Amino acid sequence: MEGKTVSYSRIIMAMQMNPEDANPAGNVHGGVIMKYIDTAAGVVAIRHARKIAVTASIDRLDFHFPVYVGDLLILKASLNLVGRSSMEVGVRVEAENILTGEIRHTASAYLTFVALDKNGKTVEVPPLISETEEDRTRNCEALQRKRFRMEQKTAQNCAKI
């Protein structure tokens, strides 16, 4: 199977936040932002695999700054790591005050997706080709996160025994 580059599936998604996205104080709900994170990451995974891809997990998500009604929510998503059927996608979330131009890094998240065939069985995905030093660094960091997730899973399974 021929590999695909990180840039092949990378996306930038943007949308203006409206009153229905927010609480009475004008802060956009975290769940709304989480939905967009999942959507952006899913598009990246599906573009790479050209198969259905479903969310298997999301790593820790911290909100650094609020997003307000009227802000432009910008999501930058790209692949960090590809396994046999799994893919780690990194998403950087920014909020831009479109009146002043101020941009705030509001959150980052790492999501793992699994590619499926039409019968719902896992299917192999193309390998990932890192093009830049940044791609290689993100791939190395993703490998460390994967090892940590596997260690956590093993520890959880041992605790059940």
SSE inventory with pairings:
Layout lengths: L3 E2 H4 L1 E6 L13 H20 L2 E7 L3 E2 L8 E11 L3 E11 L6 E14 L11 E2 L3 H28 L1
Parallel strand pairs: 1-8
Antiparallel strand pairs: 2-5, 3-7, 4-7, 5-6, 6-7
Helical percent range?
25-40%
Identify the overall geometry: globular
CATH 2nd-level architecture: Roll
| Major sheet size, sense and barrel closure | 6 strands, antiparallel
Distance between the termini: 40 Å
- What ranges have pLDDT less than 50 throughout 5 or more consecutive residues? none
Assembly type: single chain
Provide a descriptive summary of the structure in words.
This protein has three helices and eight strands, in the order E-H-E-H-E-E-E-E-E-E-H. It has one domain (8-128): Thiol Ester Dehydrase, Chain A. The strands form two sheets. Strands 2, 3, 4, 5, 6 and 7 form a six-stranded antiparallel beta sheet that branches. The chain is an alpha+beta fold and 161 residues long. It has helices at 6-9, 30-49, 133-160; strands at 4-5, 11-16, 52-58, 62-63, 72-82, 86-96, 103-116, 128-129. Strand 6 and strand 7 form a beta hairpin.
